[in-house]
Amino acid sequence: MELERRALRKLGVKGVEIRKPEQLQIVSALIIPGGESTTMAKLAKYHNLFPALREFVKMGKPVWGTCAGLIFLANKATGQKTGGQELIVGLDCMVHRNFFGSQLQSFEAELLIPKIVAEEGGPPSFRGVFIRAPGIIEVGPEVEVLADIPTPSDKNVHSGPSVESQQENARMENKVIVAVKQGNLLATAFHPELTADTRWHSYFLKMTSAISEDASSSIISQSTE
Ligand code: GLN
Predict the structure, then answer these.
(1) What is the mean pLDDT of each run of 10 residues along the chain (225 residues)?
(2) Domain holding 110: CATH number?
(3) Which domain holds residue 104?
(4) 67 lines ligand 1 (CB under 6 A)
(5) Hey, whose CA ends up nearest to atom 1 of ligand 1?
């Protein structure tokens, strides 16, 4: 949470934590951070956040889901421990939990992000930090792909997709999607708040400004702590 707020602060925006459904009425955008999506779903249910979150998404307000937040926004989730997991839904995609493996297979990789560069400038790639990250394995027609990554072929024994496996899979066009946008929804499988590069946050703020004129007054983060 603090890291999301720090990234927003760098861009001159104050973030607040959301713990209660009624707090969603006073903010113009929402970041759903990483964590553990089953636990997040249980907490959201316990605090009766689902109806307000779904309403927020339906109203067209900007929402950015990072990692577990992406899972939470997806229409469908598959992979480990998905049974009965409640999702907000709205993002027309199928997400695969822990796509790259367990905690030990967490990794960093350079991602090509042409659409973000077109808006934000800066270097052509972004250092993606993937922590027990999901992968997006299907997208609907309204979903715009912002980044993908070659699927690691050595999934079970790697500490990140090796350069060789990335090259091999890139050749075979064997890719998994890791960042998307659909209207008011943004989702990333990696954690931009863990890097010093604020281009994703800046991009989301621009989305927010485009959707709501006075968005800069209050960008919030949902708390899962
Ligand atoms: N693997 C987690 C899940 O499935 C997400 C991990 C993360 O948010 N860094 O919920």
Answers:
(1) 90 92 93 93 94 96 97 90 80 94 85 96 96 94 95 55 60 83 98 96 95 57 49
(2) 3.40.50.880
(3) 2-222
(4) yes
(5) 132
Q: Is 35 annotated as a binding residue?
A: yes
Distance CA 33, CA 31 (A): 6
Cα radius of gyration rounded to whole Å, the chain: 17
Please identify which of the residues 4, 67, 96, 201 carries the catalytic annotation.
67
**Ligand 1 pocket member 35 (CB < 6 A):** yes
- Coil vs helix vs strand at 163: helix
Can you read off the two tokens belonging to residue 126? 């972004």
H helices of the chain, where?
Answer: 2-10, 37-46, 50-58, 68-73, 114-120, 163-171, 199-211
CA–CA separation, 214 and 118 (whole Å): 24
3-state percent breakdown (helix, strand, coil) of the chain, nearest 5: 35, 30, 35
Q: Which ipTM score applies to this complex?
A: 0.95
How many Å apart are CA 160 and CA 205, to the nearest integer? 30
Q: So what's the pLDDT on residue 157?
A: 38
SS3 38: helix
- Tokens 């973000």 belong to 116
- φ, ψ for residue 18, nearest 5 deg: -105, 125
Ligand 1 contact, 36 CB (< 6 A): yes
Q: Which two tokens stand for residue 52?
A: 């307000």
How many domains, the chain?
1
Is pTM beyond 0.95 here? no
Q: Which atom of ligand 1 is nearest to the CA of 69?
A: 8
- Relative to beta strand 107-112, strand 125-130 is antiparallel
